[in-house]
Amino acid sequence: MLELKNITKVIGDKLILRNFSLTLARGESVAVIGPNGAGKSTFFKLAVGLMQPTSGEIHLNQAQIKKKSLLLQKKIGYLGHESFLYNALTPRENLVFYGKLYKVKNIEEKVANLLKEVGLHYFKDIPIRSFSRGMMQRLAIARVLLADPEYLFLDEPHTGLDQEAVSLLNRLIEERQREGIGILLISHDFEQVVSVCERVLVLNKGRIIEERQIDSEEGLMPFKNWYEAVVSGK
Ligand SMILES: Nc1ncnc2c1ncn2[C@@H]1O[C@H](COP(=O)(O)OP(=O)(O)OP(=O)(O)O)[C@@H](O)[C@H]1O
Ligand SMILES: [Mg+2]
User: Where does the ABC transporter domain start and stop, copy by copy (predicted)?
Assistant: First the structure.
């Protein structure tokens, strides 16, 4: 169980997050949506330990998280706006590097399987500096799955992916969720939100302004209309 309790973040004189609380159980999939600048990515960085909250507490499996820890990075697979990949290295070398960092067992076999899973097997020995955006994103996805995380925090993971890769990513998310991994997804792509997530939070100006379940039969248009109404305060 991952719990965020009354998190507040102030940078300079700006209040970025206000009294933010959230509980995420393993096997749950929750979307975080909201306008640009609402504080979604900041919330993720706080939760994965890349940034310290001004006040509030984060607990993982009942233990309070004090500061940036490798354990936390291992337990939470975080895909951010940056890829955290090395341009001079090949996909295989990048993954082996992170595998060693996280002390992953049977690294080579695991890396080979993941590269197949994300469709980069044929490119595994080419330095990634020449890769397209979508190829980079596929590799970034493989990286976050490497350490068998208990939670996946995906910040706009569908960006730059082609249709095939979008389906592949959604399949990966659903599989991992069935295996008991908790998923948090930030996305502006509501089609993916409705198809992948069971619950949604709307963040606006650093506050959760609405939270509800998503009906698996719910159409895209009703969801969009609901969101528009929530954000405009109608
Ligand atoms: N390091 C920082 N220093 C100052 N302000 C920051 C910093 N990081 C984020 N902010 C501010 O915090 C607010 C929230 O930013 P954040 O990146 O969390 O938004 P977001 O909801 O992820 O937006 P988007 O949908 O555009 O990705 C913005 O006003 C941003 O300018
Ligand atoms: Mg963001």
Answer: 2-230
Q: The tokens of 50 are what?
A: 């890349």
Report the C-alpha gap between 199 and 132 in whole angstroms.
Answer: 32
Do 4 and 20 touch, CB atoms closer than 8 A?
yes
Query: pLDDT (tens digit, 9 = 90+) per residue, 163-212?
Result: 988 999 999 999 999 999 999 999 999 999 999 999 999 999 999 999 99
Report which protein residue has its CA nearest ligand 1's atom 24: 36
Proximal ligand: closest to the CA of 35: 1
User: Domains (ranges, CATH) in the chain?
Assistant: 26-51+67-232 (3.40.50.300)
Quick check: CB of 16 below 6 Å from ligand 1? yes
> Is the CB of 47 inside a 6 Å radius of any atom of ligand 1?
no
**Residue 41 CB less than 6 A away from ligand 1:** yes
C-alpha distances in angstroms, 187 versus 3, 38, 116, 195, 233?
Answer: 21, 12, 25, 12, 21
Q: Which atom of ligand 1 is nearest to the CA of 203?
A: 21
